[in-house]
Specification:
The structure is a homodimer.
Chain A: H1 3-20, H2 27-34, H3 38-44, H4 48-74, H5 78-94, H6 102-109, H7 116-138, H8 144-165, H9 170-187
The structure holds a DNA duplex.
Amino acid sequence: MASTKRDRLIDTALELFNRDGYRATGIDKILAEAGVAKMTLYNHFGSKDELILAALKRRDARWRDWLRHAVARRAETPHGRLLAVFDALEEWFAQADFQGCMFMRAASEYCGCDHPIHAVAAEHQRLLLAELRDLAAAAGAKRPAKLAREILLLVLGAIVATQVNGPVDAGKAAKKAAEVLIEEALAAPEVGDAA
Amino acid sequence: MASTKRDRLIDTALELFNRDGYRATGIDKILAEAGVAKMTLYNHFGSKDELILAALKRRDARWRDWLRHAVARRAETPHGRLLAVFDALEEWFAQADFQGCMFMRAASEYCGCDHPIHAVAAEHQRLLLAELRDLAAAAGAKRPAKLAREILLLVLGAIVATQVNGPVDAGKAAKKAAEVLIEEALAAPEVGDAA
DNA sequence: GAAGAAATAGACAGACTTGTCTGTTTTTTA
DNA sequence: TAAAAAACAGACAAGTCTGTCTATTTCTTC
């Protein structure tokens, strides 16, 4: 198949970008690891940046898919699933190759807000927020967008705390905070949800 | 003074590291911007990494100082100051040169957990946590360490959300979440605070 | 089996990186 | 004012990086 080499390039790139970062990972390292010739890379992708973009798009699809399933596996009710997000995070944090969120890193390393790579990172975060909003709405939150934003802050915070300071049970702490916020969001009086 | 050049190097480095990142900022750019000769840099610091370390240490001192004052200026009571943290964040987010947290970026770009630069980033986060814990204790939280950890998650989350997605009022959202968590922490029954 | 597409190795260009070295000039100190 | 310390410009080494090119080989497909 024509796409086998392409696939291997993306997967290898993903692994090395996650381990070492984007700028720190040279094309040659990816090629050697993937066992692919340089011209093959430049035939499939026009540049390193385009390889990064392709890798991030695959990562986005896979990661959100993983989260959705990890959450669905753990709980039945929307309320329970909202909390299960943090159990899923803990599972992720415990993986040997956890190096923080690839999209945060991408946004850091390509910090021009108009840079396509930064844009993909921003989009990833918006998509995650949207999924949380659906869960929050299904759970019966009076202001699902507000609750989703709060949950997202805890998720991002837990990821960063773990990346920077190693395993410090940030997932558990975030979950307990989320419990309180969800409780509050379900009990809140009905008002228009503009946020 | 012998330290004038040194100071200028650190400040210039800080500015460029914040704007473009660590690996993306070359020594030569710093030297040109600071108007300092290369040998002067290598006489004061043995390597680029040591310059980064010196810059981050200055940043840590300055940033936490800024936060402490920004918080003290805004509120008198510990409870009020805990919330004022988020108002201070908003002020920071609104600055034209805001590019996220320099320590998160450092931990990202130098992701070997034993790397000295990563260690400085981790230490920064622990020091911030300690200050939040003091505030939480002064505010009368039953479990100040737990509350401080929760506040820290919201702080980190707000920083990342703003860095990745631009100004989306993450500070305000985090503050509202913090209000709920603080409320809960003050009302909680007295138990041993192990966390 | 033959034609065409895809992948290969490896050299190469050109720019960039950190760090070293030298010899000169400026600044500080005594 | 003379000796000592600091900073200077700029060349340089040795390595890295991305991306291009060529000529050969392997795979598909008809």
